[in-house]
Specification:
By secondary structure, the chain is of the alpha/beta class. The protein has one domain: Glycoside hydrolase/deacetylase (TIM Barrel). It contains 13 helices and 13 strands. It has a five-stranded parallel β-sheet. A three-stranded parallel β-sheet has the order 1-6-5, with no helix packed on it. α1 (about 1-25) runs parallel beside α11 (about 250-255), α2 (about 50-65) runs parallel beside α11 and α8 (about 175-180) packs parallel to α9. GO terms for molecular function: hydrolase activity, acting on carbon-nitrogen (but not peptide) bonds. InterPro entries: Glyco_hydro/deAcase_b/a-brl, NODB_dom, Polysacch_Deacetylase. It comes from Roseiconus nitratireducens. It holds the Pfam family Polysacc_deac_1.
């Protein structure tokens, strides 16, 4: 019943949202959208898994509406105070092996920018995530080899902490540094690529504490990502990248992409100290391109690549 009501609301409000978005784009206030996913698969259904068909449907819907962009480019547009293109970066959290069977190859084939946030110790020790164990269905995690192959194909690997911890329970700087700074150093050694972005496990306001965000800055990371839903708009502080759930219920996802202004009013505040505005001057790749052209050009006419089977 609720689904039917949401679909009816989209049918009525959707054209109004589209018109409002066109006005926003014309005025240089286009949003950057960063949906997050966990696992794309057709078996072992759970609340953090979306089917292959629905994931492809999300990409199809975004194809003519949004321009793929790296998180670094999204930050640059936020800092510039003006953006006349609606941008998209697809993100994943945790690090599930099945994503390399369909989702990641599809993103690479379509040249859609992707940031893949992983929990280091689960990758290193090949240990299932606690939420899967509690669900009674432990699932395979990515291997180091898969991460390296993704990075080599242009997928940006990000940090999802050293362990899948609740940062609301961590207050001591040494505990936070172990999870963020040490996790970043270990992940860079594993994949042989720089790690620039961090996504909080759970990603709700309770986890986004001042102490934890200060730890992100101490680690030299360019951003932290939340997961409670929000738009990244020109003029907003770019240290905080707001993400929304890539919901398997398509009407919800569609509503986010069409820009629902009510969500701006509902976004919770996240207080933190403003980072050093020079933080991106030395770390951001100079060769970064809006549509991930550098990583995709050589494979433009090739068959869909399969990114490393688990080992």
């Amino acid at each position: 019943m609720l689904r039917l009501l949401r679909q009816a609301r989209n049918a009525i409000c959707g054209p109004l949202h589209d018109a409002g978005l066109r006005r926003r784009v014309a005025g240089g206030g286009a949003p950057a959208l960063v949906p997050f996913y966990h696992r794309v698969a057709d078996h072992t259904s759970n609340p953090w898994t979306i089917s292959r068909k629905e994931f492809a449907r999300h990409l199809d819907y975004c194809r003519d509406r949004l321009t793929p962009a790296s998180l670094d480019v999204i930050q640059a547009t936020m800092e510039s105070g003006r953006n006349d293109r609606c941008l998209l970066n697809i993100t994943f959290d945790d690090g599930y092996a099945e994503n390399c069977d369909f989702a990641i190859p599809l993103l690479i084939e379509r040249h859609v920018c992707c940031t893949y946030f992983v929990t280091v110790n689960h990758i290193v020790h090949q240990r299932p995530f606690p939420h899967d164990q509690q669900n009674g269905a432990p699932l395979a995690v990515n291997t180091v080899r898969q991460l390296r192959e993704m990075a080599d194909h242009g997928v940006q690997i990000g940090l999802h902490a050293r362990d899948h911890v609740d940062f609301a329970t961590l207050t001591a700087p040494d505990q936070i540094d172990q999870q963020i700074r040490q996790g970043k150093d270990e992940l860079e050694q594993l994949i042989g690529h720089p790690v620039r972005h961090f996504a909080f496990p759970f990603g709700m306001p309770a986890q986004l504490t001042r102490a934890a965000i200060a730890g992100v800055r101490r680690a030299g990371l360019a951003s932290f990502c939340s997961a409670f839903g929000g738009y990244n708009l020109p003029g907003r502080d770019a240290f905080h990248l707001r993400r929304f759930h890539g919901d398997p219920e398509f009407s919800r996802f569609q509503n986010w992409v069409r820009f629902d202004p009510r969500k701006l009013r509902r976004e919770p505040p996240v207080p933190y100290d403003t980072p050093d505005p020079t933080r991106r001057s030395s770390g951001a790749p100079e060769c970064d391109r809006l549509a991930c052209e550098a990583s995709a050009t050589n494979a433009a006419e090739s068959d869909r690549p399969h990114v490393g089977a688990p080992q």
